[in-house]
Amino acid sequence: MNNRFLLAFAGSLALCTPVAAQEMDHAHMDHMDMSGMDMPGMDHSGHTPPQPASASGSGTSLVPGNEGAMHGLHLMAGDWMVMAHGTVSTQYTSVSGPRGDDKLYVTSMAMLTGERETGWGRIQLRSMYSLEPAMDAAGYPNLFATGETARGTPLVDRQHPHDLFMELAARVDFNLGSAARLFVYGGPVGEPALGPAAFMMRGSSRYNPEAPIAHHWFDSTHITYGVVTTGIATPHWQIEGSAFRGREPDERRWNIEAPALDSWSARLSWTPSPRWAVQASYGFIHQPESTHPGENERRFTTSLAFANGKGLSAIAAFSAKKRVPGATLTALLAEANWDMTRTDSLFGRVENVNNDELFPDHASPLHDIAFRVTKLQLGYARRVPLGPVELALGAAVSAYAKPAALTAAYGRDPHAITVFARFNLDRKH
Length: 429
What we know:
By secondary structure, this protein is mainly beta.
């Protein structure tokens, strides 16, 4: 599996070589949902048509059309447009307090996509990979984050590594007149129609080096083994439904797990203009967590994303997940990225999460008690163009608000700092 991924990742890097001839405006070609929408660019009269109202996020999710305003790496191969993107980030995180830790680690993502327009619609072949399985199974420090396991033990105050195969899927769009398309998406690894775009695909978290502590409220299904989605997309609306496997990925992160279709979800998205993307989604997830055997989950999410096309992207989101049987746990998230200049970016995130997994030991008197905690994060990135690659050097600091009952476990005023050097094939100007 390792060699297979390295070949795919090397292929992605190879596409970067003749950049001057291959680089095209990302607002014109890449990460765009063209379901019934006009392609941007010059029309026959020499005028620039309006920006499409939406662009593609992760899976079949939508983000504001203005988030397409970046550059990608492209290569024409006959009738196919091949697109390559990727990030590699070396990071050091230090967290204070009794449950704190420090670690030097690397996160990564590579994407390779092929797309072809036809007389009846469009075909997309999509893949996404990560070398994070080479990281220790316990992942990296992320105070108050929970979800998945390492060596059979629930991960608490950690962010788990992502799997080698993050997406292996295809999408086919069929024209329904001039302004609408019927689409079918799916594959052995994909993302169902549930929640906003995953955090690594949002403009609002473009330079943020850490996963949200609310990851398992909003986008834990972004790597799902077995997905089939169908829907209808118009210039401003998209309605879709999915069947997928509910169980989260296991600890064997180099392989492809057996697909299943035991869960379902539905999502309605509205993009009134290139600045805005709104979604509401609901899903039934069959026994998602190995640490809660026999418990299903009903999840509701809604989000409002904004991008002004001039360097500011933001999102506000709410999620409620109800264990069946069990309690309902809610989370709020707000994050933003502001490219102040051509080289300087500020980013931040505020999260408020009600979490009952902070004490997995059944002998603890705090086991299964839900605590509402808040994380406040602020960061800066200095962007340095290096030909086809962008280097972002930066740091983020985090502070936390918590109930007094958690002071013995976490200290009085826990805090964290992360410094990073991030290389992006997908270069933003």
